[in-house]
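Quick note —
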Amino acid sequence: KTTLSNVTGLSTPIDGLIPSRNYTVTVRAFTVETGPAASLIVNTLSIMPSPPLNVTVSGPTSTSLLVMWNSPMNPNGELQFYMVYHTGIYSTNYKKSDPIPISETTYNLSGLVPYTEYSIYVTATNDARIDAESESSAVISRHTLPSHPRTPQTPSLSDVHVQSATRATFVAPDVDASNGPVRYIDFIIHHAALGSSAPPLSAVPSVVGPYVEGSDWYVAVRYSYTEYQSKVASNQFTVGSGSTRTMGGLRYRNMPLKPEQVYFIYLRVIGVYENGKEMPSIGQPLKYVTSDQTSNSFTSTATGCSESVGMIIGPASASFVCLLTIAAHIIIWRYRKRVQKRFALEQRSNLSLERMDSSLCDIVANSETIAGREAKSNDENKTTAHYDVFCATSNSAVNSNEYQDAPLVETKQDNLYEHVDVVDRDEL
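Predicted structure written out below.
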């Protein structure tokens, strides 16, 4: 109750009233005596309410947050509804909820992204302006919980991969850790029968550990998330390398594959809840059929090149350089084979020429004897001279490799060579 005294005139302001309240105003006139009272009931107008109080979040899951609050200290009118706003930490665009009845002071934010920080505030609206809202409450930030890692992509064979009997070189895809912390990345090997198809993911054993003799399922190699990300830069991974490494107290052996066998290569990502519980996620496998043991001798060259060069100049350039390296190895290999074959032919050629030269010179000697017995013949000097020229020329030809200039040899003896051609060494 407020009393205004000594008011002169017919009006006066009354301050300090509360919005959206009913007030009774009584006026009396005072002269020598007090006059009768006149009363009037008036209602102050509504204004925008004060913000909701004590906004909190409880019961977080990987995709939802339960928001709670208290009513405004000063409704300043008749409250109509509340609105909840939220946004991801990396965004400035807030999304608002549908109007929430005034009787409720909780709201379940759903459809959120796992392991993401959200900023949240609440507003209130009263009858002052149905299209206006109070100032926002205090902004709070909360995380959704981690979830299973996103399903990894299927590994693919590397551009520089060469079919091998004991190993497979492939490209390992990036691992998406947006759903929560990733603890390990495993390469799981399944040794299957020839002609087998990939088993459904539901058939993959829930527990697969390091290689054990005779096991059809085993983890060939395990990386921490940090290690894996650093190695993805080279973009090349090899299964069957024969390497051994220890992770988490366990020894993993990347066993060489067996020739002419079917293998399925899986990528498994293991995430972790905040309470430490592991959450695995596994992708579709890469099917790989090893070649026979003698199919290709350049596999180790390709694999070593891809792993080492890729670390230096990047995967794209490494693929080109390694392809050139393989081509150079093939050219050198073929050239060496040709040289070896040529050398063998020359060895046989020299031996044949030596034997032939000896026989021809014997023919000359025999011919000279025959020529002596036929001294009366007008051709004897011609015949003897002809053989002498041939023997000398043939020996000279062997020494100088000028075989094409050696003359044709003729003899009058039926039991000796009638025609002897000295042929080019390459033709031999």
